[in-house]
Specification:
120 residues, mainly beta, Immunoglobulin-like, four-stranded mixed β-sheet, globular, binds copper (II) ion
Protein backbone atom coordinates (compact mmCIF):
# COMPACT_ATOMS: atom_id res chain seq x y z
CA UNK A 1 0.00 0.00 0.00
CA UNK A 2 1.32 3.39 -0.98
CA UNK A 3 1.40 6.12 1.57
CA UNK A 4 1.05 9.68 0.39
CA UNK A 5 2.23 12.43 2.67
CA UNK A 6 0.91 15.84 1.86
CA UNK A 7 2.89 18.80 3.07
CA UNK A 8 2.68 22.51 2.56
CA UNK A 9 5.13 25.29 1.97
CA UNK A 10 2.64 27.75 3.39
CA UNK A 11 -0.85 26.49 4.04
CA UNK A 12 -2.03 22.98 4.76
CA UNK A 13 -5.54 23.87 3.69
CA UNK A 14 -4.31 25.09 0.31
CA UNK A 15 -2.45 21.86 -0.28
CA UNK A 16 -5.41 19.68 0.49
CA UNK A 17 -7.56 21.73 -1.86
CA UNK A 18 -4.96 21.54 -4.61
CA UNK A 19 -4.54 17.80 -4.27
CA UNK A 20 -8.19 16.90 -4.08
CA UNK A 21 -9.84 19.26 -6.49
CA UNK A 22 -7.39 21.49 -8.26
CA UNK A 23 -6.98 25.18 -7.62
CA UNK A 24 -9.55 27.74 -8.60
CA UNK A 25 -8.17 30.84 -10.17
CA UNK A 26 -9.94 34.20 -10.12
CA UNK A 27 -11.98 33.38 -13.21
CA UNK A 28 -13.46 30.33 -11.54
CA UNK A 29 -11.74 27.90 -13.89
CA UNK A 30 -10.06 24.91 -12.39
CA UNK A 31 -6.32 24.96 -12.82
CA UNK A 32 -4.40 21.76 -12.31
CA UNK A 33 -0.98 22.04 -10.77
CA UNK A 34 1.83 20.47 -12.73
CA UNK A 35 3.45 17.74 -10.67
CA UNK A 36 7.23 17.39 -10.89
CA UNK A 37 8.48 14.02 -9.73
CA UNK A 38 11.83 13.58 -7.98
CA UNK A 39 13.06 10.07 -7.29
CA UNK A 40 14.77 9.26 -4.01
CA UNK A 41 17.22 6.63 -5.10
CA UNK A 42 18.81 3.75 -3.28
CA UNK A 43 22.25 5.21 -4.07
CA UNK A 44 21.41 8.28 -1.95
CA UNK A 45 20.72 10.77 -4.70
CA UNK A 46 17.72 12.84 -5.75
CA UNK A 47 16.90 12.43 -9.43
CA UNK A 48 16.75 14.97 -10.89
CA UNK A 49 18.75 16.85 -8.29
CA UNK A 50 17.35 20.14 -9.58
CA UNK A 51 13.83 20.93 -10.74
CA UNK A 52 12.48 24.17 -12.13
CA UNK A 53 8.77 24.77 -11.51
CA UNK A 54 6.20 27.52 -11.63
CA UNK A 55 4.39 29.00 -8.63
CA UNK A 56 1.43 26.74 -7.93
CA UNK A 57 3.14 23.60 -9.20
CA UNK A 58 3.81 20.62 -6.98
CA UNK A 59 6.92 18.59 -6.33
CA UNK A 60 6.43 14.93 -5.53
CA UNK A 61 9.21 12.80 -4.08
CA UNK A 62 8.96 9.09 -4.70
CA UNK A 63 10.92 6.62 -2.61
CA UNK A 64 12.70 4.15 -4.88
CA UNK A 65 15.17 2.69 -2.41
CA UNK A 66 16.50 3.32 1.04
CA UNK A 67 15.01 5.74 3.55
CA UNK A 68 15.25 9.45 2.95
CA UNK A 69 13.83 12.88 3.66
CA UNK A 70 13.59 16.04 1.59
CA UNK A 71 14.24 18.72 4.17
CA UNK A 72 14.57 22.39 3.29
CA UNK A 73 17.90 23.93 4.24
CA UNK A 74 16.05 27.10 5.35
CA UNK A 75 13.84 25.47 7.91
CA UNK A 76 14.12 28.37 10.32
CA UNK A 77 12.04 30.38 7.87
CA UNK A 78 8.61 28.91 8.55
CA UNK A 79 7.08 30.54 5.53
CA UNK A 80 9.39 28.79 3.14
CA UNK A 81 10.42 25.62 4.87
CA UNK A 82 9.28 22.13 4.14
CA UNK A 83 10.18 18.72 5.40
CA UNK A 84 8.77 15.52 4.01
CA UNK A 85 9.78 13.50 7.03
CA UNK A 86 10.88 9.95 6.37
CA UNK A 87 10.01 8.59 2.93
CA UNK A 88 10.61 4.88 2.50
CA UNK A 89 10.61 2.82 -0.65
CA UNK A 90 7.16 2.94 -2.25
CA UNK A 91 6.08 6.05 -0.36
CA UNK A 92 5.51 9.52 -1.72
CA UNK A 93 5.48 13.06 -0.38
CA UNK A 94 4.08 16.13 -2.13
CA UNK A 95 4.56 19.84 -1.53
CA UNK A 96 2.90 22.84 -3.09
CA UNK A 97 5.29 25.45 -4.43
CA UNK A 98 3.45 28.56 -3.30
CA UNK A 99 6.42 30.92 -3.12
CA UNK A 100 8.88 31.93 -5.82
CA UNK A 101 12.51 31.45 -4.99
CA UNK A 102 15.32 28.94 -4.87
CA UNK A 103 14.95 26.26 -2.23
CA UNK A 104 17.89 24.09 -1.36
CA UNK A 105 17.14 20.88 0.46
CA UNK A 106 18.89 17.81 1.76
CA UNK A 107 18.28 14.36 3.17
CA UNK A 108 18.53 14.24 6.95
CA UNK A 109 20.07 10.77 6.82
CA UNK A 110 22.65 11.27 4.06
CA UNK A 111 24.70 14.45 4.25
CA UNK A 112 25.84 14.60 0.61
CA UNK A 113 22.29 13.93 -0.65
CA UNK A 114 21.17 17.36 -1.81
CA UNK A 115 18.59 18.86 -4.12
CA UNK A 116 17.27 22.15 -5.35
CA UNK A 117 13.87 23.50 -6.35
CA UNK A 118 13.70 26.69 -8.37
CA UNK A 119 10.20 28.19 -8.24
CA UNK A 120 9.55 30.88 -10.86
CU1 LIG B 1 18.81 9.91 2.06
Amino acid sequence: MRTVLVLALASAAAVLLAVSSGVDDSSGQEVRATVHTVKMKGNNTFEPAEVKVKVGDQVKWVGEGGTHTATADDQTNLKKSFNTGTVKMGQEAIINCNNAGTFLYHCEFHGPMKGKIVVE
